[in-house]
Structure formats: C-alpha cells, structure tokens
Amino acid sequence: MTSRTRVATAFDHREPDTVPRWCGASAEFWTKATSELGLDDEGLRRRLGDDFRRVHSRYRGPLHELETDATWESPFGIQRKGLGYGQPTSHPLADITTVAEAEAYAWPNPDWAVTSHIRREAEQWNGEYAILGGEWSPFWHDVIDLVGHEQLYYMMYDYPDVAEYLFRRVTEYYYVASERTFQGAGGEIDIFFIGNDLGGQTGPLVGLDLFRRFLLPPLKSLVDLGHRYGLKVMMHCCGGYRPLIPDLIDAGMDGLHALQPDATGMDPGELKNEFGADILLNGSIDSKRVLIDGKSPEWVHEETLRILDLMAPGGGYVASPSHDTILEETPVENVLAMFDAAGEWNKG
Question: Phi-psi region for residue 265, left (φ > 0), alpha (ψ -120 to 50) or beta?
Fold first, then answer.
C-alpha cells in the first residue's frame, strides 16, 4: 500500500498493511532530530514512516508593527507574545454588547489567504501520501482572543446573539479560504484538518448546552464543506472532551487527533470500545510519560505496542503522540522507537 491508500483504509475502519503513522513536531525538536540523524526534512519524515504531508495557504494580509515582545499576529489582528504562539496581548471586543459593534470590527478578507500554489505543492508527492489541507480554522481560540476567555462565557449567557455572530463571522473567514483551497487542489487533498482545543485536563471547557448552541454549528459547517469536496475531516483537540464525542460523530466528523490518555475520560481502550467503529482515533501514545520520560527506547517500544494492541485492531486508528508538537526535550531515540514499533505491529 502507499501511504495514501493506507490512511484511506484506516478511515474506512479496515486494517491496512501497517498502522498509519503521524508525526507533528516542534521546530526545535525537528532541528535536533535532523542534526542527530544527518537527514533533511523529507528524509526524517521517511525515516519515521510518516504517512501524511500537509499543504498550507500563505497569508498575505496587512502587516502591522508588532508590539514590544509580541512575536506573531493572527488574521484577526490579535498580537501574541510568549512561547510558541504565545498569549494574546489584548481582547479588543471584550466590552461589546451588540451585534452592530461586532460588525464594525476590522474583519479579515479571505482573499488574504493565498491558495494558488496549493495544487502544485501537493502534486510533488505524486499521490504517495495522504495530504492534509484547508485552514486550521481555530474559531474557538480566535473568539477567545477577541473577547477574553472568561468574558466569552459571560457573553454566551448575557449576549448570546453577539457570541453567535462572532463564532459565525470568524468561521466564515476559514470556510471561504478553505473552499478556495479545495477548488484549486484538483483532488490532490485527502483530509481537511482543523483544530480547536475543547478539553481541559479534567473535562470539556464548555458544557453540552453551550457546545451545541455555539460551537457545534460552526464545526458542522466545516465538516459539511469538507464532505462536499469528497474529503475526510479530522479535528485536532487536546484534553478531556469525551462527553462531546457523540455530538462530533453525529455532525459527521471523520477523525479525532492527538488523543490525550492522561486526561479525564480519555482512556485509550475505552475510547476504542465506545467510539472506534464510528470515528478514526489518532494519538493516545503519551507524549510525556512515554516519549519524554520513557526509561529506555526498548521500554518505549513495548509501551507503544501495548497501546497499539488496544487501538489498532479493526482499523480506524493512526499511531501518533498524544500532543501533536513533539517537544525539544523529547529524546530522538524514544521517538524512533515509537514509530518503529508502529511499523512493526502485527507483523509476526
């Protein structure tokens, strides 16, 4: 099987020739690993057996001068500072109470997400890999940035029409930009990959009522968009959000990514037993306990096989760490042991 057919087989809930493998990593880990192994980017992906490749739009919107210590600005004009993507430096819509005030905000133009190169980039892999595409679409996080996390909860109760408008308007940007990607890709993209972290360590960040009113409709619109172009739709979501999974399945979500086994309700075997026939599960190999703190590559290898014995039978599973970004402090030899074990599973 090619990687592309292997992943498609897993999404069909059938066992492929080997367990599909997914690797997401921080730039710092990637630099360390390529240096230690003497490989370039593509060489490292092949060494790990990564079955996925990804294409991105290129943001060409207005560029504003960054504030002191800020490192990045979102398409919605929110600057951030700190590690990684950091934390927002302001919440410009924190005090609004009307839809008219929300409408007056300087909303981004989807034309700023340039997609004309997408097909050419995807074609370079000659149909060998499963290609991820479309906008990351973190509408939950963007609205939090615009309003403030605590204030957003008050808004959903006190000014629900305003909250609904914000979620709808933010999602619209990603929807239109993603649709242009899919229109231009010529069938080269396989998976619409989106991300919204809806879980904390002990459970969902929103209750079912709020989730169903404010978050599920935008998610459903993105799922429907992907399906209209014949794509599988997979969502990255951290934390414990097991109570939300039945609604995600009912909305048509095809896959869940970076399952976190140390979060409440996210036991790998239980997830497989309860949801494994209905949605692809991606993750469950503990990024800290196994990959960072693993006592030896041999132990990591055996622990990976233990998780695969729970998750891989019958298909519908992709082997990957419980956090998409493998951190710099992760030993390279442990990561190799994990991916090698996935490549060997069920091979006698």
Answer: left
Domains belonging to the chain, first-starting first, are 3-54+116-136+152-344 (3.20.20.210)
pLDDT at 84: 79
Q: pLDDT tens digit string along 241-264?
A: 999 999 999 999 999 999 999 999
Q: What are phi and psi of 333, to 5 degrees?
A: -65, -30
Separation CA 315–CA 19 (nearest Å): 8
Q: What is the pTM of this model?
A: 0.97
